[in-house]
């Protein structure tokens, strides 16, 4: 009986060996790809978090400070001489320029002011008003006087405009100011900024029937 059972079942069959070929993208390559993906995801999350933090900080700062643009106005202009002969311009122009700081918490240091007077893009004088500090919600008045003689060679268009304005007694004179300013919030001061201020004027010659109208200047950051 035991012989029959042994003959019937026979010897045990050994298990077949499995031969797996390493496929592409597996092993070390797979680990490197996962690492790069995780690193990229981490960097993206850090950058996104920083952007959100900065945005929140700026918003909170705006809510607290509520910064407003500084306002420049030319409230008066007196032109007593504007004569062009022999390529020389003789001029005498006095201005009142009001500078208004409307901010409740920001003070302003005007460290440098350069004021240029131009007739149709031809600069004929430069003045340097004194530096000053402007406190919260205050108004400061600048009184630059452009007076003297300047050798100018006007082109055909500028000469034509001068003839027209001589006949009307109303002159188009631009004043451009180059500033170096710092803003102050409590004990904190910003770095130096260099804004530009442009005032496009129509100045009547003294004694003419036309009165000067207040001009709002443009603040260009």
TrEMBL record:
GO terms for biological process: defense response to other organism. It is a single-pass membrane protein. The keyword Membrane applies. Keywords: Membrane, Transmembrane, Transmembrane helix. InterPro entries: LEA_2, NDR1-like. It comes from the Eukaryota. The chain crosses the membrane at residues 42-65. It is found in: Membrane. This is Late embryogenesis abundant protein LEA-2 subgroup domain-containing protein. It comes from Vigna angularis var. angularis. The lineage of its organism: Eukaryota, Viridiplantae, Streptophyta, Embryophyta, Tracheophyta. The gene is Vigan.04G351800.
């Amino acid at each position: 009986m035991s012989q029959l059972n042994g003959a019937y079942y026979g010897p045990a069959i050994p298990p077949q060996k499995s031969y797996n070929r390493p496929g592409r993208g597996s092993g070390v390559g797979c680990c490197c790809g996962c690492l790069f993906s995780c690193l990229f995801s981490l960097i993206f999350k850090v950058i996104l978090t920083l952007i959100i933090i900065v945005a929140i900080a700026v918003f909170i700062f705006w809510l607290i400070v509520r910064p407003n643009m500084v306002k420049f106005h030319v409230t008066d202009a007196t032109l007593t001489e504007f004569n062009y002969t022999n390529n020389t311009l003789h001029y005498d122009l006095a201005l009142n320029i009001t500078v208004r700081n409307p901010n409740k918490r920001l003070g302003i240091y005007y460290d440098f002011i350069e004021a240029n007077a131009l007739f149709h893009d031809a600069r004929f004088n430069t003045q340097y008003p004194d530096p000053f500090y402007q406190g919260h919600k205050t108004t400061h008045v600048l009184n630059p006087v452009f007076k003297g003689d300047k050798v100018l060679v006007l082109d055909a268009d500028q000469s034509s405009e001068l003839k027209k304005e001589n006949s009307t007694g109303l002159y188009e004179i631009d004043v451009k100011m180059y500033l170096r300013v710092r803003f102050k919030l409590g004990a904190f001061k910003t770095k130096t900024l260099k804004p530009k201020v442009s005032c496009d004027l129509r100045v009547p010659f003294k004694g003419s029937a036309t009165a000067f109208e207040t001009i709002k200047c443009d603040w260009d950051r």
